[in-house]
Structure formats: structure tokens, C-alpha cells
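Database export, one record per block. Field names are fixed; values are copied verbatim from the stored entry.
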Amino acid sequence: MHIENLKKFIHNHIDIQGSLTEVSKDGKRFYETPEGMFPSVTTVVGFEKQQFFSEWRQKNPEESKRVTTRGTKFHSLIEKYLNNEDIDYENLHSGNKALFSLLKPELDKIDNIIAIESPLWSKTLKLAGRTDCIAEYDGKLTIIDFKASTKEKRVRDIDNYFAQATAYALMFQERTGIIVENFAILIACEDGLKQVFQGNPLHYVKSLHKLITKYRKINGIS
């Protein structure tokens, strides 16, 4: 498979002062930030589904390892592309090459990149994490998240994706003062389907706060 018309992306990075140090505690991921120890965004927004996926991983260890590896390599490939780095496409695993080719038309709608895998945290939300990408998507400043999936995702099953993107938008605003009014979840599926979900983070703030409150109550966090 040959991938043609590789784009050169414009970068206008914003320097977000401070760094994150990842810490694992009781099987959960936390980050040490300049303003305290906060749980990761993905831990909090996905905690209601954690038990299901934990049981699934135990029953399907080989498949669990495969999809985890797939996701890591897929993200790395996209990051290299967006950073205008050379990629050895000929020696890529056929699965990741197919997923990349599927999502490339959406990736090429990205430009004026201001953050890739940037550390973010919020003293207000008491959350921390690293956002995949903040850039213009189709001309609109957007929180962008990249996903690989075995099959098509249903909207009702990915509410945590929308909450995650909303958290990043709020954290970015707290860190920089810049308001982001759009998020885009870009998904490449192994069954050959491409999915794009967009929304305004403002519409998901209430549901995010409900998740945070429930997580903190269940875990005895004041």
C-alpha cells in the first residue's frame, strides 16, 4: 500500500509552562502537577466502564495486548505525521498502515497546530492529562482525539470520549485563557469504517462535572 500526498503541517505551538509526572496508585493513574497531585482525565471519565473493561482484559489477555499495542503504535504514527517527521511506510505493520490511510483525509484537515501531547491540568477540575492535539480542524480551533477501534462505535458507548475532550478544553482554557469551542473525535475502525464525532465542549460541561463528582464521592475524595 502506497500513501501519497503527504501534507506538511504548520506549527504555532503555545508553550504551556510546567510539567507532569505520572504516578500509579492502587492501579489508577495520577499526575504530579505544579499545583498538586491530580487523577488522570481518562481515569476519571472512564471509571464507570472500568470494571467491564477490567473483566474483559482478564478474559481476553491476548486481544487486550493486541489492541493496546495497536493504539500506542497508531498514536505514534499520527504524531510523527503531524510533526512532519519521516515515516518508513513500507515497513509499517499492514494493520496500522490501513488505519492510517483510512483516517488520513481527516488528518489532512488539521493545520496551525498549537499543541501535541501537551501536558494540561486544572486546579478547578482537579484533573490532569495529555491532549492528543489542539489545532485548527477544518478551519476551526479544536481539541482533537485520535482513536483506533476494532469495530464501529455507537454514540451511547463513547460519552466518556466527549467528557475527556471537554476536560481538555477546560484545562487548556485555564492554562492559556484561550477558549476552544469545538472537539473532534477521529476514529479509524479495523472493519474499514471511519467515524468523526464533533461537538461544542460547552454542551458537555454539566455531564463532565457529574462524572467528577461521582468519581470523587465513590473514592472518598473531598
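Remark 1: The chain has a mean pLDDT of 90.
Remark 2: The helical segments are 41-45, 47-59, 61-82, 94-107, 159-176, 205-218.
End of record.
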